[in-house]
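Q: Given only this backbone (355 positions), what sequence would you predict?
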């Protein structure tokens, strides 16, 4: 980590502790228009169902519960769709309370077995963005195929096998060697999605893996998905068919991914199940573009979320809503400082301590 990032992290900590522990956040809550803070993660940590997933994708139930309880005492706990709709009213109703929405991406099994009971305990709701290819069609997402292969073969051995099958990227893959992150970036941005899926599925099968079994171990089953959709504390949202980097596709292909994911959910759950909310895969500015936003709107979604941190206001583009990442390293004073608008106040002065 660079000196610049360390200094920014230290300044962020000092600022957030002052705002949260002095009670300044209460004063900031009392001024300004209503805000919506959207939290996002993937899983409630549960070794029985998601032990194979990376640590940064998980948050323990105890930590998530403590954060939601603390924020629930000061903010209305809503779904992403509810919060987005109320922001529009907030432009005229400045006395409305600010809001916090929890969201989870992809559709893992703990979202039903661990998240739903937790939401009942803290009287909250959540939006779960379901990946159509994995949940509905039971196709193994490329990232999980890669994670499985890296664990099974080691990144260096896998690099050689990938290089044999992807000649256009052979040089960069061999140069990446044992770096899992560099290997992942090459496959993410430099390889055709269809070719990437084919190669990874072939390597998984050749290495003794069963793609369908990996999907079933991680993702909601058909019955579990229907049970989650029926839960009164859950809003279902869309997340494409195959979780591509949308900005790497032309507009027609983007629409096919986004609208196809919505239609897959509609066909699976019934009318209206496609929802009003959509999450861009990966969600960084370089992972989606204006065509992605147009495609989300054309597919019938009213709101789309990114993975850039910040709060949302009535003036925020509904197809570029911000979300704050949570995992087991998340601390309440940081989340609370974002929720009350203090970090956003600094952003207006040209100081961004978060990104």
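A: Predicted residues:
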């Amino acid at each position: 980590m660079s000196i610049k990032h360390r200094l920014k992290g230290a300044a962020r900590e000092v600022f957030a502790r002052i705002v949260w522990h002095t009670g300044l956040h209460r004063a900031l809550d009392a001024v300004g228009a209503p805000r919506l803070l959207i939290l996002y993660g993937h899983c409630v940590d549960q070794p029985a169902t998601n032990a194979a997933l990376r640590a940064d994708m998980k948050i323990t139930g105890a930590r998530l519960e403590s954060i939601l309880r603390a924020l629930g005492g000061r903010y209305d706990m809503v779904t992403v769709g509810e919060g987005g709709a109320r922001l529009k009213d907030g432009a005229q109703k400045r006395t409305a309370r600010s809001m916090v929405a929890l969201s989870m991406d992809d559709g893992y099994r703990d979202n039903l077995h661990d998240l739903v009971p937790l939401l009942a305990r803290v009287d909250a709701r959540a939006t779960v963005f379901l990946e159509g290819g994995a949940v509905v069609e039971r196709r193994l997402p490329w990232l999980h195929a890669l994670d499985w292969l890296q664990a099974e073969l080691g990144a260096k051995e896998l690099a050689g096998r990938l290089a044999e099958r992807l000649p256009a990227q052979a040089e960069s893959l061999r140069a990446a060697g044992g770096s899992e992150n560099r290997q992942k970036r090459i496959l993410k941005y430099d390889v055709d999605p269809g070719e990437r899926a084919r190669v990874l599925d072939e390597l998984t099968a050749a290495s003794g893996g069963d793609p369908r079994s990996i999907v079933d171990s991680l993702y909601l089953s058909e019955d579990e998905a229907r049970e989650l959709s029926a839960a009164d504390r859950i809003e279902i949202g869309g997340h494409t068919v195959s979780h591509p980097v949308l900005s790497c596709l032309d507009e027609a292909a983007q629409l096919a991914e986004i609208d196809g994911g919505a239609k897959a959910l509609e066909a699976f759950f019934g009318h209206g199940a496609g929802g009003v909310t959509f999450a861009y895969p990966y969600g960084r500015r370089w992972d989606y573009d204006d065509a992605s936003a147009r495609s989300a709107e054309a597919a019938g979604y009213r709101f789309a979320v990114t993975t850039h941190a910040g709060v949302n206001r009535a003036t925020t583009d509904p197809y570029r809503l911000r979300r704050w990442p949570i995992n087991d390293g998340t601390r309440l004073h940081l989340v609370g400082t974002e929720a009350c608008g203090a970090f956003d106040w600094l952003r207006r002065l040209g100081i961004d301590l978060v990104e």
